[in-house]
Amino acid sequence: MSTNNKTAESYWKANLGLIYGSLAIWAVVSFGFGILLRPLLSGISVGGTDLGFWFAQQGSILVFLGLIFFYAWRMNALDREHGVEE
Amino acid sequence: MDQFVLNWLFIGASFALYIGIAIWARAGSTSEFYAAGRGVHPVTNGMATAADWMSAASFISMAGLIAFTGYDNSTFLMGWTGGYVLLALLLAPYLRKFGKFTVSEFIGDRFYSPTARLVAVICLLVASITYVIGQMQGVGIAFGRFLEVDATTGLFIGAGVVFAYAVFGGMKGVTYTQVAQYVVLITAYTIPAVFISLQLTGNPIPGLGLFGEHSASGEPLLQKLDSLVTELGFNSYTGHHGNTLNMVLFTLSLMIGTAGLPHVIMRFFTVPTVADARWSAGWTLVFIALLYLTAPAVGAMARLNLIDTVYPNGTQAEAVLYDERPEWMGTWEKTGLLKFEDKNGDGRIQWYNEGSEAFAATAAERGWQGSELVVNRDILVLANPEIAQLPGWVIALVAAGGLAAALSTAAGLLLAISSAVSHDLFKGQLTPNMSEKSELLTARISMAAAIAVAVYLGLNPPGFAAQTVALAFGLAAASIFPALMMGIFFKRINNTGAVAGMLVGLTVTLIYIFLHKGWFFIPGTNSFSDSDPLLLTIKSTSFGAVGAMLNFATAYIVSKVTAPTPQHIQDLVESVRIPRGAGAAVDH
């Protein structure tokens, strides 16, 4: 039981680490690059406008996609590493 | 072939397909009715969830919202996709592991409290019913415009089709019709967009064309659009003009609200394993992104085409003569969604920003006495193929696509409503001893009743129909999402804390909306307005995120001063966090 608990604990810790990292990126590309940090990116021009506009209308969606697939892939691997897969 | 015949042909064929699927995928058990027997492939579920989520608002309204505002309405793009990151990381895998049939059932079990379950059911019902009104109205309007039947007949036909597959097929029938509806709606959305992008930029991918070069002028498309709109006194398209705090909170509210919508969450109960639920969230966003990456291009290009139609020789030259206007303008004028009024009596259609003080002098100099064209933003996507002079079958396809978007979302919502009634209210509270067979019958009757209510509300929409989406998102964000998330991530949150949190989030959000939109949306009873809101610059539509934070804070504080969560509930949380054993949790 105690080893079980330990496994569960380290599994959950690894999961939380992944979630924190992913949500940090999630916030930076949308609220950051897309809105608050847009003035800082105004020097980088993309197709007649600036990088911030691209992040707000296309970039953040592409990053969201990458994040969800990365999380699914890492978690499914973590399940196996910790022996908690189905 | 006549346009009218083409419309009937495309819409008729798509409806025949949905009914065919309904006959093939009938539900035989409660597990099939509520969760499609938990045997749906993650990619299939992704497609169904995309159709479930993308409503008439995404298909019809969103590109128009972006077209007439530009950058500031990027909030919808980020908000309605970013919510899937929250759903994929924080909710979907765990709720699938929990392995029950409704969102409210998780809240009731995790917080060991029938009160918590009841509060969740009420939030679910209010959010879903308000949301379904808009879909039913969308069905009525689309029928009226494309099939020339009156909106009431259109509504009944739409309801009849939903009845066929939702009452008999339950989640199973809805899943497979949603897959078909996704294919119809994405084809209908993409084809005109590709043609328009080719015409304007030579790039077949609209999302790339948006950042490409405008073929006619050789300038970058967005730069060209910026100069055209500013020449007519409008705000620049790519510029940031709105309030930043409100923009951030609105985006966050849409994200949290999306992740908390029960009809979306319950779709993840249908996949076989926890790992599948994780993949499926990714596939869902892939299928949503196909539309959401195209929508901003559709918006920008439609705005450009519209200006070009009104000022065929450039904004500095004379506007188009009313008698020489293109045919599609005439068609839409009949619906009242496009209006022309010749204020200066010159027989030409001047369209500009009459609200701009800086532009007033220029307008006066040119002999303009007010903007003469009013375009309802909802017609842009539907009129797009006509504006770009595409063939008749594309127009018919777009009509079928708009209906698919509205019907698929309506079915998902009706399913959320009926399972809450039959599973949470009847099986959970009123008649706990009923057999599976009677529960299935109850579920079907609840579904039929939900459709009847939706039709009634679609025919007699309450005056506040336009405000209701904000209400649905506000409730989901302020009550449902925080309760689910705390249930999984914070063991310390107990029954009292959760109920207090939900009630505070819900009440404060409702009051804030009512203060700005009127009590129960009765006009004139509001003390504030969204242009001058009560708190800082936070509009009532952006308040969901604040409500969610209040919910979290209340639940935390109340749980701290009340009895700790019992051991068996802590064990339940532990088991929800680990994928192993999800198969065993299916039956209960």
List its traits.
A: 86 residues, mainly alpha, two-stranded antiparallel sheet, 2 helices, B: 588 residues, 2 strands, 69% helix
Topology:
The complex is a heterodimer of chains A (about 90) and B (about 600).
Chain A: H1 2-36, E1 45-46, E2 49-50, H2 51-81
Antiparallel strand pairs in A: 1-2
Helix pairs in contact in A: 1-2
Chain B: H1 3-24, H2 30-35, H3 42-53, H4 56-69, H5 74-98, H6 103-110, H7 114-146, H8 151-201, H9 206-209, H10 221-231, H11 244-259, H12 262-265, H13 274-292, H14 295-310, H15 327-335, E1 338-340, H16 357-365, E2 373-375, H17 379-387, H18 392-430, H19 436-459, H20 468-489, H21 495-517, H22 544-561, H23 567-577
Antiparallel strand pairs in B: 1-2
Helix pairs in contact in B: 1-8, 1-18, 3-8, 3-13, 4-14, 4-17, 4-18, 5-11, 5-13, 6-7, 7-8, 7-18, 7-19, 7-20, 7-21, 8-18, 8-19, 10-14, 11-20, 11-22, 14-17, 17-18, 18-19, 20-21, 20-22, 21-22
Description:
- The complex is a heterodimer of chains A (about 90) and B (about 600).
- The longest helix of chain A is centred in the N-terminal third of the chain and has 35 residues, at about 1-35.
- Chain A contains 2 helices and 2 strands.
- By secondary structure, chain A is mainly alpha-helical.
- Chain A is elongated and about 55 Å long.
- By secondary structure, chain B is an all-alpha fold.
- In chain B, about 70% of the residues lie in helices and about 0% in strands.
- Chain B contains 23 helices and 2 strands.
- A two-stranded antiparallel sheet of chain B has the order 1-2.
- In chain B, helix 3 crosses helix 13, helix 5 (about 75-100) packs antiparallel against helix 13 (about 275-290) and helix 10 (about 220-230) crosses helix 14 (about 295-310).
- Chain B is globular, with a radius of gyration of 25 Å.
